[in-house]
């Protein structure tokens, strides 16, 4: 049985690193605060005898030896980075729950047959560096190491520079190795479990998602003397495209999602029609075929609207993460572990991307969800109940033990 | 007769201060480049014996003595600051044409009865510091000196700090004094004169304009798991409001204008519904009653859309510049001056705000326009023909001489 108070208090100590005034967390990937979070986590793991490997993407592998260290490890992974106005649970919960599993086994002097590794993946959020899940993405072979290293934040700092700066550019090749099973425990980040009053989500897969930058080029002119019908106004085009994409999401309701998280205009002067408008577009659907249709319609809508508004546009493909189905053995292990506890559960798909999406390409993988308050995440107010946090970790321990033992 | 080559070459020399790669000008108010432009202009004026006064808002008054210096001066004013991606004529043309008038009189050894002052008004554009025309606004009594001093740019630097920094915080009180007549020569910044093939606009007034910041408050949530119908999404509200305001401008076509020059969202993360969206809104109409209706409808639209989208909003009133009619005597002086040259002219209203809007509250005022290429302004590609530039200055000289002589 895990120590739920120890887990909760570790979460709260970690949440102080990057704590925000509104009770959330801003510990973005590869900042000084991310370094501080990593340092603290590594020190906790070393206290119980784990060995650290750091790979070329700064992914951390904390290894607890098994009885037979030639056998492939069971891995428990998630991330320590946060959104700019993020919460205290997204990602860090999965990492510290992994630590709690190791601490529990250590307290009980129990050694598993397979080694166990807790993994911290670099830049899962995609908030500072796009795309998301890049540490696990490079590791799994989805992206090359050069692509990963060269991704830059809005100020132009690259992942490689920032890894070097904070001392987490490792030498271990960023590449997959034999793995017995991979688990990731996470808050749901959506409202379903709370709504149906179940404490555990047995996650069977992850919906497909695509990221784009839509760049619209207009003509800067004076806001006063220029007649409306002589303008090439990127804001006019953007407003119509956004409205039509919300309508597109409605067309494929309730599953489809359309989100516009960032908008920038240049030169950004009140009395000048903008020259350029850049809009981030995030489209999602659990059905890969429908996501494909949404992608096509997004391109058509952009083309039609921009032609009608007499502006040019380009669509930059930032990310394409197809829908994923997890491994049956891992899903079964989670289901059996939760059934043994008697906790009410629901089988479900994830609306958010997770490192498990990429890990699942090279290792048997599944995930466990717990409810979060009102389904709110990517928000400083993100919250979860201590009893749910404990239940998720207990199920994780059960699932890990099943597959680490045989 | 003015020296058109000298005027053109002065314009081109000044355009090097803040020259942009695309052939425009970025000499924003109270930057180091603005200081350099002011220094150059003052040195040119001193060469022909003008005296400089700098007032508390950094407005510059360059005085050429008349035969009777107890008589009120005729003033010729405009601005040297530019948009971030501005052109080589907006504002600076009016200032350097004023200098060319003085140079011409100086060459001819001709002294007017009234003194003449060329005036450089601070921060006309409103691009770095909102609102526009603040130097002339404080001077005319529309704004208090404290309001003017405390206006800050996006980085928080105030006008007073920046005036001090560049050495243009003067001691002369920023307040009106007796003035015989005030003229401002400017490129049209719109397409009318070019379209109707006339070289001079006799400007009878300026349309009304209002600036707002619309701030929409939503709830940040995750782009993936959060159902569309459970979001409080400020982007959704903004897209609808923008579309309805374009429709509103159409309703009052062809005179009405609606422009959205700047949009900012926080936290600005791709996979998070924004917490806040701030939109600048610029509404204009030459008919003050219709502008009032547009203002009311803007507030109604914002209220209805935000209620439907379940988001909060506030409208911050940034600026309210009612429609203005210029002084009959000054308008007549311009009309007579242009008729004497035989140049084709049009009587018209200005779509852009100008310092003359505020000057006209305390002094008899009017303006002269010349065409600019395709009506494009607030754009690095802003252009004007040397012969039009010369014609405008010749008409200015004629109008000034009429009222400075009696
Ligand atoms: N869990 C999470 O926030 N993942 C980031 C990738 C995504 O946007 O779904
Ligand atoms: N002429 C000019 O650009 N004025 C600035 C004020 C406005 O936006 O009209």
TrEMBL record, chains A, B:
Its cofactor is Zn(2+). Belongs to the peptidase M20 family. Residues 206-305 form the Peptidase M20 dimerisation domain. InterPro entries: Amidase_Cbmase, Bact_exopeptidase_dim_dom, Peptidase_M20, Peptidase_M20_dimer. The keyword Zinc applies. Keywords: Hydrolase, Metal-binding, Zinc. Zn(2+) 2 binds at residues 90, 125, 378. GO terms for molecular function: hydrolase activity, acting on carbon-nitrogen (but not peptide) bonds, in linear amidines; metal ion binding. This is N-carbamoyl-L-amino acid hydrolase. SUPFAM superfamilies: Bacterial exopeptidase dimerisation domain, Zn-dependent exopeptidases. Zn(2+) 1 binds at residues 79, 90, 186. Binds 2 Zn(2+) ions per subunit.
């Amino acid at each position: 049985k895990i120590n739920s108070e120890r887990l909760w208090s570790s979460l709260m100590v970690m949440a102080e690193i990057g704590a925000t005034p509104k009770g959330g967390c801003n510990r973005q990937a590869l900042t000084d605060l991310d370094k501080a979070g990593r340092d603290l986590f590594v020190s906790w793991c070393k206290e119980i005898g784990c060995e650290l490997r750091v790979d070329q993407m700064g992914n951390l592998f904390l290894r607890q030896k098994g009885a037979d260290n030639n056998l492939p490890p069971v891995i428990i992974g998630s991330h320590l980075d946060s959104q700019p106005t993020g919460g205290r649970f997204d990602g860090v919960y999965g990492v510290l729950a992994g630590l709690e599993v190791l601490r529990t086994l250590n307290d009980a002097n129990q050694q598993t047959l397979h080694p166990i590794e807790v993994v911290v993946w670099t830049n899962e959020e995609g908030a500072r560096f796009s795309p998301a899940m890049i540490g696990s993405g490079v590791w799994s072979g989805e992206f090359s190491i050069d692509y990963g290293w060269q991704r830059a934040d809005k100020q132009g700092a690259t992942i490689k520079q920032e890894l070097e700066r904070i001392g987490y550019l490792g030498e271990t090749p960023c590449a997959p190795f034999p793995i017995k099973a991979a688990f990731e425990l996470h808050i749901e980040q959506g409202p379903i479990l709370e709504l149906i009053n179940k404490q555990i989500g047995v996650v069977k897969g992850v919906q497909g998602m695509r990221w784009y930058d839509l760049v619209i080029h207009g003509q800067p002119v004076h806001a006063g003397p220029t007649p409306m019908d002589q303008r090439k106004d990127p804001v006019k085009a953007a407003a119509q495209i956004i409205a039509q994409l919300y309508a597109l999401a409605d067309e494929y309701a309730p599953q489809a999602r359309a989100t516009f998280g960032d908008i920038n205009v240049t030169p950004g002067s009140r009395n000048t029609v903008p020259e350029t408008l850049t809009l981030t577009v995030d489209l999602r659907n659990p059905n890969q075929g429908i996501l494909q249709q949404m992608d096509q319609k997004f391109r058509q809508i952009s083309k039609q609207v921009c032609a009608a508004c007499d502006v040019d546009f380009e669509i930059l493909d930032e990310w394409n993460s197809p829908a994923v189905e997890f491994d049956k053995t891992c899903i079964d292990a989670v289901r059996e572990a939760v059934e043994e506890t008697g906790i009410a559960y629901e089988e479900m798909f994830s609306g958010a991307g997770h490192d498990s999406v990429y890990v699942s390409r090279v290792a048997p993988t599944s995930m466990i969800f717990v409810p979060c308050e009102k389904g709110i995440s990517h928000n400083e107010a993100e919250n979860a109940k201590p009893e749910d946090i404990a239940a998720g970790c207990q199920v994780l321990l059960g699932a890990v033990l099943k597959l680490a033992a045989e």
